[in-house]
Amino acid sequence: MVTGYLDNFYARLGLPQSATQDEIRSAYHAAARRFHPDLNSDSRASEIFLQIQEAYETLSNLAKRSAYNKLLPEDISAPGKFLVNTIYSRDALTQLDSPQLLYVLLTIMAPPDLAAAPEKRQPLNLSIVIDTSTSMNGARLNTVKETVTRLLQMLQPDDILSIVTFNDRAEVIIPATRSRKLNLQEARISIISAAGGTEIFKGLQAGYAEVKQHLHPNFSNHLILITDGRTYGDEKLCLDLAREASQEGVTIHSLGIGYEWNDEFLESLSSITGGSLTYAQTPAAIKQFIEEKFGQIQQIYGSNAQMRFRTNEATELRYAFRLFPNTSAIPIEENLLIGDIPLRQSLSVILELMVNKTTGIAGDLVLLDGSLDFAIPSAAIPNINSRITFSRPVHQQPPINPPPKILVDALSRLSLYRLQELAQVDLRTGNLERAAFRLKSLATQLLTSGEKDLAKTVMLELDHIGNSKGMNQDAQKKIKFGTRALVNPELDKELHP
Amino acid sequence: MTIQCPNCSSAEPEGAIFCSDCGANLVSGSGLSTAAIPAPDAQLYPVEPAPPPAEPLQVGSAQINLHIVRTGQIIPLEGRSEFTIGRISEGQSILPDIDLSPYDAYTQGVSRLHATFKINNNEFFIEDLGSSNGTRINNTKIPPLHDQVLHHGDVISLGRFKIQALIRQ
């Protein structure tokens, strides 16, 4: 398949099936302008451009469109296949000519009867890609090997697993297979040893090639990358590969061990596939990561959920954060990759919308309009494509009600992570004073919430940035992942008491 | 229209719920609360009213001891006319003469260089060195960078960290 498996003509234009002819026309013009080969030098642009044209040729013609609609699976908009709950921070917007903020807590879950039923689990198509550079030697690699060996015994007959190692070159230890020659496979894992450098692209490439052999929307397609080092020169190749993987519905989860790895790089690598990055300092944390991720990808109801949307001129999506599962910031792109929908819990995402100008607007303002797409691997017709719209009424003087508690609580836990994130931005842009102020506030907040050790780390870094104008790598990771761990919500309990 | 953060005065757009600069809650108004750390204050030494000095004291005969209220420890100040007090933390270039970091001074709000004790002609003074959380004598805040006289039994608070001055003439 050349294109992503969530593909259909509507999705290519970022539209729901219910779109009007006008909407189709303007979406086509916008997309065509963006991907026209004369205007866009990206090597994939011309291919995308052709796809857009193909979609428009059909959809712009009413007869062809209705013929095409008949070909689409009936339940493409899937009523009853999932529940979406939208909680806004405000009942209404104020008529203003200056910017105002609106928060949205979006939760997506399986319908209760399905979540409760012991349904057919979807088979795994998983590749574990393991760094075997010299620095992995000892406890790190031993823990990975032991944990992965145990996973072998937990696989179901229809699961596909592959194991790849890499240092300066990649080696396929276990090729993608359903066969369980446990003795042989365990022996192959036991002789993995560490030597050499860290070239992540080689590992990713080999691991992805294994996953690709069995790509199918009825599988849970994942790649788990475990590394403790920095890769040099091949970052762009890695990110390109991740983008392709994402298109094909493969999610990459990464684990960084120790402090040597490049946080920004691994974070993008995972997040552009809708996955997340975790860090581990101890063998126990390594084991926990592998087991947790393995458990989690077996309990997925909907995979690779993404929102394709258009905002209007007045609205800007400023920030997106996934609270659960795989707590992590979500990069703001045209296609917002919000991640996997767990079977018995809900996918929860917080969005921050900046509404720029609301004077002259009467009635409802549509803030964001688009489609929510994902795959339900266990369904006969896995692809879901449904419309999602956020809108709020605009009033001159709206009644002021306190925002819903569940939203305030979530934002409250998120605010510490946000402070360090913004402090990082300040540091990158050279605004030391503001960074220091934010870190100081962070330390104070951490102290009040009883996080003494983390507060101390922040205080030490405050001294540090004064001297060196940058943060110490270890501390930066400690603070980032330390505050991220505090976000981990009880949210799900509140939604399903 | 903007909202002003009650904690740090930064301007946030309407609809903001938490301050982007300091993380304070903008809707409940109770974002930053000062948490009280229970400290045993009960063990202050009872101080009898100081007898009026009958005659001029001999130079250098008086002695001051610092009583750490939380732990009951006594630190004598001897052999110098000035002692800086604070807490040692990593990477600090100027170290205080009296280090309170073993007493959990950090969480009690003691600055790295918090104050100076001065001994001059049988009188004892304290000067706050511009500390973040200030210095109090018997719960009265003292201005920074000014000498304040200390009396026997005075309770000095460095941030929340309490020390009692015990002076023997």
Structural write-up:
The complex is a heterodimer of chains A (497) and B (169). Chain A is an alpha/beta fold and 497 residues long. Chain A has 16 helices and 16 strands. Chain A folds into four domains: 54 residues, Helix Hairpins (Orthogonal Bundle); 137 residues, Immunoglobulin-like (Sandwich), CATH 2.60.40; 175 residues, von Willebrand factor, type A domain (Rossmann fold, 3-Layer(aba) Sandwich), CATH 3.40.50.410; 89 residues. In chain A, the strands form three sheets. A six-stranded mixed sheet of chain A has the order 6-5-4-7-8-9, sandwiched between helices. Chain A has a five-stranded antiparallel sheet with strand order 1-3-14-11-12, covered by helices on one side. The radius of gyration of chain A is 23 Å and the shape is globular. The N terminus and C terminus of chain A are likely disordered. The radius of gyration of chain B is 20 Å and the shape is elongated. Helix content of chain B is 0%, strand content 34%. With 169 residues, chain B is mainly β. Chain B has a six-stranded antiparallel sheet with strand order 4-3-13-12-9-10, with no helix packed on it. In chain B, strands 6-5-7-8-11 form a five-stranded mixed sheet, with no helix packed on it. Chain B has a two-stranded antiparallel sheet with strand order 1-2. About 12% of the residues of chain B have low confidence. The chains are: A alpha/beta (497), B mainly beta (169). The interface between A and B is medium-sized, with 40 and 28 residues.
Task: Describe the structure concisely.
In chain A, 41% of the residues lie in helices and 26% in strands.
Write the layout of secondary structure elements.
The complex is a heterodimer of chains A (497) and B (169).
Chain A: H1 9-12, H2 21-35, H3 45-59, H4 62-71, E1 83-88, E2 93-94, E3 100-109, H5 112-116, E4 124-131, H6 139-154, E5 160-166, E6 170-177, H7 182-190, H8 200-212, E7 220-227, H9 235-247, E8 251-257, H10 263-271, E9 277-280, H11 283-298, E10 300-311, E11 315-324, E12 328-329, E13 335-342, E14 347-355, E15 363-375, E16 383-395, H12 405-428, H13 432-448, H14 452-468, H15 473-487, H16 491-495
Parallel strand pairs in A: 2-16, 4-5, 4-7, 7-8, 8-9
Antiparallel strand pairs in A: 1-3, 3-14, 5-6, 10-13, 10-15, 11-12, 11-14, 15-16
Helix pairs in contact in A: 2-3, 6-7, 6-11, 8-9, 9-10, 12-13, 12-15, 13-14, 14-15
Chain B: E1 2-4, E2 11-13, E3 63-68, E4 74-77, E5 82-86, E6 98-99, E7 113-120, E8 123-128, E9 135-137, E10 140-141, E11 147-150, E12 155-158, E13 161-168
Parallel strand pairs in B: 5-6
Antiparallel strand pairs in B: 1-2, 3-4, 3-13, 5-7, 7-8, 8-11, 9-10, 9-12, 12-13
